[in-house]
Amino acid sequence: MKMIACTEGRSDRVEAFSLEMINAARSIAAAGDEVVAFFAGQAAKAAASSFGAADRLIAADAAGSDLIPAEAYARLLRDTIAAEQPDLVLVPYSANGLDVAADIAARTGWPLLSYVNEIKRDGESLNVVAQMYGGKVLAECVVKLPAVLMVNPGAFEEAMPGPVDAAKVQQFDAMPAIESSRVKMVAIDVPDYADVDLTTAERIVCVGRGIGDEASIDIARDLATILGAEIAGSRPVVDNGWLPKLRQVGKSGQKVKPKLYLALGVSGAPEHLEGMSHADLIIAVNTDPKAPIFNVAHYGATCDLFDLVASLSDRLQASPGR
Amino acid sequence: MNILVVLRMIPDSAGELQLAEDGRGIDREWLDFQLNDFDDHALEEAILLKEGSGATVTAVAIGEGANRVLQMAAARGADEVIALQTEDDAMISSRTIAATIAATARAKSADLVLCGVQSTEDVFGQLAPYVGALLDWPHVSGTNRVLPDGAGLRVTQERGAGVAVTYEMALPAVLGVQTASKAPRYVSGSKLREASKTPIGRATLEPSGFERSAEIRELRLPTQGGSGEDLGNDAENVADRLVAILAANGLARK
Ligand SMILES: Cc1cc2nc3c(=O)[nH]c(=O)nc-3n(C[C@H](O)[C@H](O)[C@H](O)COP(=O)(O)OP(=O)(O)OC[C@H]3O[C@@H](n4cnc5c(N)ncnc54)[C@H](O)[C@@H]3O)c2cc1C
Ligand SMILES: Nc1ncnc2c1ncn2[C@@H]1O[C@H](COP(=O)(O)O)[C@@H](O)[C@H]1O
């Protein structure tokens, strides 16, 4: 079986989940199978020096483009698939992967499963576990090869970084594909982390949609102040404009690893968990006992978050530094 | 510009999900269905584009409660509304509906198809890239700003860590909207009542043209709690325990 593990990078760095895709392929590779890493972007050098866990690297070098539009990435991947005839293509669930995976499936007609957490081989097929309904349900599926899987970041460990044997690196120019793409990148905005940097915060109080309205953010902010914590929010809270974008935790927000993560009214969708599941101590308060946040919480409470914030603030204020 | 926006009704996953008897789906009988959040943002983006540059907006809704949502879409400014009939009880799979959406886009001479970036039911793939690939139109997912730009669009996409990328793209195009440029608007009861007179067109599903993606052998609920401890639902008790837990973890002091 031949597998293509899709990898990504921005500027001169590769994304950490690239190593997870290579490891996901490796984890089901038998003797004689081949794991081919596919990379498209500016960091072709970094790819060659870190994807050694793959048997080969095919790198489309976008020397003049900080970030490659998904349309160009998908075209380059399609050419690679046509040339390599793989049995399986693993695409990360990333902003780029969201556009690439179904595009490839539609144009090849191959099956596609998204939000994949586990992959096992079963003869000519794969047994795959995928998440649905915001992580509330797991689907055990049988997929016939050839197929495309879109894999959740964090579902597999990273492969050991190391250089790819120079003879096993096949490099070509990505610029023609980028230049002919109907989608042109015109700007990259990287936020200024000077004001808030959740990635270095030791304590975080995160509010989800359960907080209900903008005015209620204040009571969570007060608790955060008492705890010496930064206030953060899930996507809907930030989308509603109740907290600034730099305070969003998750897939399109920040990936945090504080000593304390107190989640109030957060359901724990996979895109949220991706940003915080490695926190040292996770405490979750949610009235729904089936909320997926409880799958990663060290302590969970099913009371109303407003009641809890009130009683906890009272106690912490009554005996500060107890 | 002619815009087609897709509105999918999905089970409210904040509610309780029960597995169907055959274990291959969820029991839809008592479920609350609501408009997919991201599709709500897609609708808003469509209406904002209409207000900004005079587009016509056709809304297609799929699933239980489609009529109600289409009235809401009309009240917010959609010019034409169509309910796409699917099998009762079937989950709304992007792979299954993509061909019909692509055909509707052609029939309505759409320049732009807007859908939510994902739904909780698109385990077999996301709608925007399927439709884009079927039409061979460029597609971008995860947008949070869409502006007309000459003959095309200027589109901003969310990446990780707060990084945003802006693209210029030609029309026709397909977008998977994550967040509209402005939060979805509220419609008044009087506007809703007025819009309830809007005729709702009907359409049926065409063959998908795809092979079945995979066989769902079994759905299951994740093992709850993991190794986590349940502190119960009494706020006073929980607060007492948390004070102790914070202290035990050296987190009592700032
Ligand atoms: C490409 C992509 C990227 C994304 N990136 C992110 C990201 O970076 N960060 C992110 O968070 N999401 C992200 N999402 C969105 C994600 O899928 C979810 O929609 C989101 O995390 C849900 O936020 P929530 O938990 O606050 O809201 P909900 O899912 O609506 O949950 C609210 C919860 O509050 C509980 N609740 C309500 N009232 C109370 C109360 N009084 N007391 C206690 N509990 C209460 C409810 O039971 C419910 O579980 C992304 C999605 C996509 C497609
Ligand atoms: N104050 C509250 N206390 C307990 N549960 C709530 C509260 N508000 C909302 N919920 C539940 O949280 C879920 C999502 O709420 P909403 O986003 O307000 O629709 C629903 O299942 C509600 O039943």
Automatic annotation (TrEMBL), chain A:
Classification via SMART domains: ETF (SM00893)
Pfam families listed in its UniProt record: ETF, ETF_alpha
Presence of keyword Transport: yes
GO BP, one annotated term: fatty acid beta-oxidation using acyl-CoA dehydrogenase
Gene Ontology MF term list: electron transfer activity; flavin adenine dinucleotide binding
Keywords: Electron transport, FAD, Flavoprotein, Transport
Domain of life: Bacteria
Chain positions recorded as FAD binding sites: 209, 234-235, 248-252, 265-272, 286
Alphabetized InterPro entries for the sequence: DHS-like_NAD/FAD-binding_dom, ETF_a/b_N, ETF_a/FixB, ETF_asu_C, Rossmann-like_a/b/a_fold
Cofactor(s), names only, from the UniProt record: FAD
Cofactor binding note from Swiss-Prot or TrEMBL: Binds 1 FAD per dimer.
Residues covered by the Electron transfer flavoprotein alpha/beta-subunit N-terminal domain: 2-176
Family membership noted in the UniProt record: Belongs to the ETF alpha-subunit/FixB family.
The protein, known as: Electron transfer flavoprotein subunit alpha/FixB family protein
UniProt source species: Mesorhizobium helmanticense
Source organism phylogeny: Bacteria, Pseudomonadati, Pseudomonadota, Alphaproteobacteria, Hyphomicrobiales
